[in-house]
Amino acid sequence: MTKSLASGIAILFMAFVLVYVVVTPDIDLLNMKKDWGTKKMYVRVTEPGQQLLAQERKGTKDSRYHYYLVAYDAAGNARPISFSTPKSLKTNAVLLVLVKGAKDRNGNHLIGRYDVVELDKVPVRIREKLELAG
């Protein structure tokens, strides 16, 4: 095979990969790196978050809501997690969380990010663990 043919094939392959990445909606290039090393798990918000006032900025109070919950992976394995949000989450909301390997000082796993999900998107085994109907 000549060098020009090999170069042409390599360029064609890279173009195909680029088009695939751009066209595929499930690939989030901006969050891809920070999601490495995380595990998808589900959690149900069972109680209101603990409101923490961080500090006052320009006369307004800045607060966050901290949660300590138990998340479940696809196999039904549980992990205690800890995270905070700028807004209070609804009680009984179901979240898909990306759990990191890192832990807080109490041994709870930290999360990279979360998304609120509908009940029909939660695997049946996990619905049972989260004590959800449906």
UniProtKB/TrEMBL annotation:
Keywords, ordered alphabetically: Membrane, Transmembrane, Transmembrane helix
Superkingdom field: Bacteria
Pfam family, one: DUF1093
Spans through the membrane: 6-23
Keyword Transmembrane recorded: yes
InterPro entries referenced in this protein's UniProt entry, alphabetically: DUF1093, YxeA-like_sf
PANTHER family given in the database record: HYPOTHETICAL CYTOSOLIC PROTEIN, YXEA FAMILY PROTEIN
Official protein name in the record: Uncharacterized protein YxeA
